[in-house]
Amino acid sequence: MLEIYDYTVVLTYVSLMVSIGGMMLSVNGHLNLAVLCLAISGLCDMFDGKIARTKKDRTEEEKCFGIQIDSLCDIVCFGVGPAIICYCIGMRGPIGMVILMFYVLAGLIRLAWFNVTEECRQKETDEKRACYQGLPITSMAIILPLVVVFRPLLGKEFMVALHAAVLVVGLLFITDFKLRKPKNATLVVLVVIVAAAVLKILHVCQ
What is the pTM of this model? Predict the structure, then answer.
């Protein structure tokens, strides 16, 4: 089993450890730093697939391991992690808790379905997947930092916006629609947006 631990999954492991650190920070009241960790984890996830594909001679076991380990890390980083952060931010009422439980469940269902379909797809073709089926769970690494950044503008409506954002994102995880994967230019824009959110959060933390 040890031979499948190579550089192709290192960034996935980094994403997981950063996310766990973010959860620890959130339960200790360092909420901005926790959101920062989520954003960094998302940046890692943007490029782990590209790194994995640089190894051209991956065995079927290595490919399957990559699919499984990526989804297992994703449910922690972008499912459980954001739920804990949002709970610590203030989603502690009955409605908020139900929304958070639904959010994690929807993310889990989405990832399980992705694993099944991706393994079947890779047996038929080596082509890169062109579209997402539903909203990818990693999108929360962009959405939550942006909601937090706009907190001063939202004022008293911030908690309403947070509840709504988590609910809508969870619904989109399990909604059957196709979303075209971003090209390199779009990825650059996303990285800039997340980086700007990170810088803003860092400024607030000072």
Answer: 0.88
